Amino acid sequence: MKEYKPFSIYDDDEEKKKPVDIPRELSENSSDLDLEIEDVPTQEDEKTREELMRQFGGPPPAAPSGPPPVKKSSEAMESVPFLQGQSTESVEDRAKELIRKRQDSGKVRDRRKVASIFDKPIEPDKAISAGKAFWHPLSYRAQAFWFLFPALAFFALFYLYPMVQGFQISLTHFSPLGKSVPVGWENYQRAFQDSLFWQTVVNAAAFTLLSLALGFWPPIVLAILLNEISYGKGLFKFLYLLPFVIPAVPAANLWKWIFDEGFGVLNSVLQPLGISPIGWLTDPRWALISIVLMFVWKNTGWFMLIYFASLQNLPEEQYEAAEIDGAGVMKKIFNVTLPHLVPVMWILSIIQVLTTFQIFTEVFVMTKGGPMHATEVIGTYIYKTAFGAMDLGYASAMAMLMFAVLFIFTMARFLQLKQVSR
Amino acid sequence: MENFNATVQSAKPKAARGLFSNLDRKKKPIKVTLILGTLLLTMGSAATVAPLVWMALGSFKSPAEIYSVPQTYVPASFNLGNYEEALRLVDFIKYFLNSMFICACVVLGQLLISSMAAYSLSKLRVRFAGGILLLFMTSLMVPFEVLVIPLYLIMKFFPFGPGIANTNLINTYWSMILPGIFSAFSIVVLKDFYDSIPNEIIYAARIDSCTETRIFFRFILPMTKPIMSILAIFSFVTTWNSFFWPLIVLNNPDYYPLVLGVQKLIDMGEPWNVVMAALALSTIPSILLLLFFQRTIIRGIAYTGIYG
Predict the structure, then answer these.
(1) Is A266 found in the same domain as A413?
(2) Which of B21, B43, B13 is nearest to A221 (CA)?
(3) Which of A120, A135, A161 is the last residue in one of the domains?
(4) Tell me, what DSSP letter sits at residue B19?
(5) What is the mean pLDDT of chain A?
(6) Phi, psi (5° rounding) for residue B123?
(7) For residue A172, what are the β-bridge partners?
(8) DSSP characters over A319-353
(9) Are residues A116 and A201 in the same domain?
């Protein structure tokens, strides 16, 4: 191996004067034009040659009547004008043009190009698939495609196609068996004039804000505490995770019983405190708050563990540096711990917004849209419109509007995910 | 990223130091603070578990006890009559097996398809890999409500909706399994994992003239066991807990998953003590799952923090 020197760090002239050594392969055939003639001259070539001779001012081709005069090409060349100093063009130019023409005709290949495939070492990260065309089902590229194919097929059939179809349905008065009538944007206009639809949007927004207000800080506080204690971490994790793993249906039914106005445990606990029974799920003022409480109960443990996992990655040097600078506990929390958690807070807020806007099961089980539509959310309204009233067109239009409303948040989540997965 | 791959592969993550150094921990005010913190945590966990305890207590009560005002907190006797009643009313075993079957199919299908796709995107240098991954990730943006109506039509008139020759998949296991199989989340997570596997393993196998399929199933898949278990548990829990979709596509009790079956039992208007027994029965599998796979679930939850 020869040592490779990109440049000399010393400004010495010796280095410059050194003869440049040309690789052997290049220097050997430097006079050669590296052309390889594959074919024998055909009639066409002969014609080209004759034409060329005419251009050069040689003698005209033999008359068709008699037998062609047998003449060696070298003899003909002797009378060519440029050989006698009459031409303005150089020989090289003409020769190059000739060569270019022949190359364009496809009959002569550049030997260098052919050779290069074998000269390079075969790249180690490419499969050796000599002799298999790209369309062959076992070729390398095709194999890569077949690995991807099932996922692509499922994606196309169960995400892409429904998306497009959902938009199409939203533009019609849809009936699955009869003929659906295209009505343009009428369904969307109807949604904008539908006060119930606006009610669902307001409810969803209220639900999101309430759940953020009630459910944002507890997981952070609990995670910081959990990170500090020395014993019983596993037990606490288990207990806090219980609501997360149990299905939403039993959880919601359980809370429906707890919130029951007449026999619920919540009212019977509050009674000794002098609070008269509240219709948690039957009073329009309280219904939404009750569902938010249940939602916070179900998700706090899960969020807490995400914060906890993030705290595990906090380098301890940061705490040590803060201590050396004389920071107390509160300063450490506000200047080291919480800033470390900010990215996770963003992620979880986005997740919370998305899940609360799409909430269905909890509301459906506990209030079915609730007293006087006080807890009607987009999910339940779409369900009632589509599968109760069988108005699929209108329901699709509302779903599309919901998608539009959520787009900012989904976009934020999407960008975050893209950043992580690069 | 290196950090996170390391946490996945190593069984025990490094214990963090936390706010207090070991020296601080011996000081009295800090000891008191820590004890107060533990107390707060205990109260929080009590609030978390209390509803579930209430459910367990309620499932043993007699109708007279459960409809008394004020509530009696502890049942007079722990008899299993309510459970017998619940088991008599609906076929829990069958619902349980339905749920198990659906979840098993979804999990296996999802893992196979996602890992193959992720391997292709990560190591096989398929064309337009970046674009395809982005396309897959767009599916995470779509709320399920948008897809529900067209998906219902696709299931009713499989595969291309009404108007074209079709089969009705409503009230079959297929309608539960098929839409759950594609998961962009698993593909993204697995792709990241494959990116961290060194290429030399694959080169070595290729030099030994191993086919791509064999390389994947014999070398790559066994390496991804830790991450596969996380994804498996997560897709299992999601499928097990799903309610909206089965509510729409199933109305034949023969195919009900556990969650839907319990809801149908409650809709029949049974007294609350029987309902509590049914709820307890339907939560037991999930609690057992958490008990046995707690570590995997917690590691998976850390992933959701990373991947959103």
Answers:
(1) yes
(2) B43
(3) A120
(4) S
(5) 77
(6) -115, -25
(7) A182
(8) HHHHHHTT--HHHHIIIIIHHHHHHHHHHHHHHHH
(9) no
Which residues of B, range 72-111, sit inside 8 Å of A by Cβ? none
Parent domain of A36: 32-56+91-120
> Does any CB of chain B come closer than 8 Å to the CB of residue A240?
yes
What does the pLDDT read at residue A129? 46
Query: What is the Cα–Cα distance from A142 to A382, expressed in whole angstroms?
Result: 43
How confident is residue A119, by pLDDT bands cut at 50, 70 and 90? Answer: very low
Residue with tokens 């010495």: A12
Q: Which amino acid, residue B268?
A: M
Q: Is B282 close to A125, i.e. CB distance below 8 A?
A: no
**Tokens encoding A167:** 């938009």
**CB A314 within 8 Å of CB B16:** yes
Question: Is residue A135, in this structure, part of any structural domain at all?
Answer: no
Q: Is residue A318 part of a domain?
A: yes
Q: How confident is the model at residue A116 (pLDDT cuts 50, 70, 90)?
A: very low
Closest CA to B175 of B158, B195, B192: B158
Q: What is the CATH number of the domain that holds A410?
A: 1.10.3720.10
Distance from the Cα of residue A331 to its chain's centroid: 40
Q: What ipTM was estimated for this complex?
A: 0.87
Is pLDDT larger for residue A395 or for residue B269?
A395
Chain position carrying tokens 């669902």: A200
CA A40 to chain B, closest CA, distance in angstroms equals 41
Residue A144 lies in a domain: no
- Residue A128 forms part of a structural domain: no
CB-based contact, A253 to chain B, within 8 Å: yes
Preceding omega of B285 cis (within 30 degrees of 0): no
Q: Is the peptide bond before A243 cis (omega within 30 degrees of 0)?
A: no
Q: Is the pLDDT of residue A148 over 70?
A: yes
Query: Is the model's pLDDT at A99 over the cut of 60?
Result: yes
Contact B302 A300 (CB under 8 A): no
What does the alpha-carbon distance between residue B62 and residue B75 come to, in Å, rounded to a whole number?
A: 8
Q: How far is B79 from chain A (nearest CA, A)?
A: 20
Q: Which of residues 42-71 of B touch A (CB under 8 A)?
A: 44-45, 47-49, 51-52, 54-55, 58, 66-71
Structural domain total, chain A: 2
Residues B148 and A380: their CA atoms lie apart, in Å, by 12
List the 353-412 stretch of A: residues with Cβ below 8 A of B: 354, 357-358, 360-361, 364-365, 378-379, 382-383, 386-387, 392, 395-396, 399-400, 402-403, 406-407, 410-411
Q: Answer for the pair A294, A362: CB distance below 8 angstroms, yes or no.
A: yes
State phi, psi for B91 to the nearest 5 degrees: -85, 85
Give contacts of A 326-355 with B, CB under 8 A: 329, 332-333, 337, 344, 347-348, 350-351, 354
Residue from B41, B135, B267 to probe the interface with A (highest A Cβ count within 10 Å): B41
Judge whether B260 and B246 are in contact, CB under 8 Å: yes
Write b or e for each residue in B70-84: b if 16 or more Cβ atoms lie within 10 A of its Cβ, otherwise e: ebeeebeeeeeebbe
pLDDT in tens, A59-88: 555 544 555 555 555 555 556 555 555 556
Break chain B into its structural domains and give their ranges.
90-268
Q: Among A160, A261, A290, A89, which Cα is nearest to B136's?
A: A160
CATH number given to B90-268: 1.10.3720.10
Q: How far apart are CA A229 and CA A417, in angstroms?
A: 32
